[in-house]
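User: Show me an example of a complex going from sequences to structure tokens.

Assistant: Sure. Here are the input components:
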Amino acid sequence: MKTPIKKFTQILFILSIPTASLLAASSNDDVLKRLENLENEIASLKSKNIQLQEKLNKNTSESMEEELGTLEDRLDEVETMVLTDKIDFGLGFRNRVENYEQKLSDGTKISDKYNFSSKLWLNMNADITENMSFHGRATMYKYWSDSDVAFENSNSILASMGGQTQQAPSKYDYKQGRMPGDTALYIDRAYIDWTVYDGEIPVILTIGRQPATDGPSYEFKENTVRKATYSALFLDAPQDGIVMTAKLDKLLGESLDSFRFGYGKAFQAHDASYVGSEFSTISGDALQDTHMMGLFLEGKIPSVPNSFWMLSYIGGGDMPANPTASVGNENIGDMAVYGVSLQFSNLLSSGVDLFAHYGISNLTPNGKTIDMGFGPMGLMTNEIGDTDDKNGYAYWVGGRYNPYFLPDLKIGYEYNHGSKNWFSFLFGSNDIVNKLATRGDAHEIYVVYDINRYAYIQAGALMVDYDYTGSGVHVGAPMSVSNSPRAIDTLANYYLQFSLLY
Amino acid sequence: MRKKNILLFFVLTFFSLSACAKTGEEIAKELEISASSKAIKQWERLFKKPERLVKKIPGVDKLTEKELEVFMEYLINHAADSDHPAAAGL
């Protein structure tokens, strides 16, 4: 039997169901409405966001485009400058004071102090195409307040030196820019490097006034890097010609880096005047040109970084007695120089540089002589009809030390010796004493102090002891100094210089 | 004889210690870097920013302090605007 309370509870429950349903229906509508509103809001926000993004992108893109445009304009300006600056110029400048002390074979002592000189050189480089480049150097070299005088003044101490040709540089092709002259700029090198074949063995032609001065191993004393193709003991003179270089390193490795064949002229008679006019004088047979030929092999010493070796042969046919004259001159014979060179830079990272060069000269007179006021003079002979070979030799060794605890300081020493008949192509030596031509002994010691990366101060002493006369000259027989009156016996040069290479 | 041996010892020690070090050229070859690809001032600027240096030359962070010094010296000495060697066909 049901109690009244239970009945009442049942009725209340039954009645509460539709009421709860009604209430639930009302709440769902709200939620749905709210959801709908939220969706609308999200859509609206999304739309706004897209609009903002688009606006932002547009602004960024415009601003970046503007910025890129500005950069492009600036790069164009730089590129235009680069493309129109066809030649890169470099500067070299040297001021030097030299003090000479000389003793003659008769015991006379002469000194000439405080000889100041300035040398300016403008280096030029241009990359013309990928396989062609130009290199040049224009040089002005003169004594202070003096132009050309020293070489024509017979009272000059240098003019009295053992056979040095004392021509004004302007008259002597090899000495232009190499010996003190006047304020004129002379071109001591101007050549094109042209890679004619770029395969397994690239072949490069070097055409023009060659890099043939201040070669290895002068770079240590000059506080620079290699500046010429040839050893300075065998050839140191501006040289007009063509050199073919075959690069062998790709095929054979760096131990045999290159082979070179060179052709040039040591003397060109230039005996044609007024060509094309009725006054034309072409007399090409009067004097032969001096043709030169050279063969060179070089490479690195295996497993020794910063090293190089070189074998050299240089030959010249029909040497003229006087390289400055076409008239009153004579071809007096042939000559050849054979040489071997070794060089180590910063050997095993020790700061030590070492070098050694050894050369043999072979001169063959043709029996002809000329008389320049000292009797008959032929190729290393004073005898008419002498055709015997004149052989000589020379060596040049030296080193430089750059202490790690004094990185701005370098100390160097060089020694060279030449025999009685030693002669090589050193007409254009930048060394005013031309020490490598010495028939005797020469010692040089120097100290270099780097002021900064580009400038340095150098102090040095060069002492030469001549055994034979005529050092650096190919005419006339060398005579023993002790048997010659007033020949130079010893010569010392104490110098101080400031140099800049920028 | 004794003096000679002592001298020889010092010379050999000096060169053998020196021989252990790599040259700047060798490091440049290993890292495949051409010194002439930049001017002196550009190399100097790069070496002042180690993070940028590592990005530009991967592997440079593995060099010892001494090697880094030698490497930098080599790059500067052979930079595009440095004193270049001159010879036919170089």
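The lines above are the inputs; the final block is the predicted structure for all two components together. Chain B has five helices and no strands.
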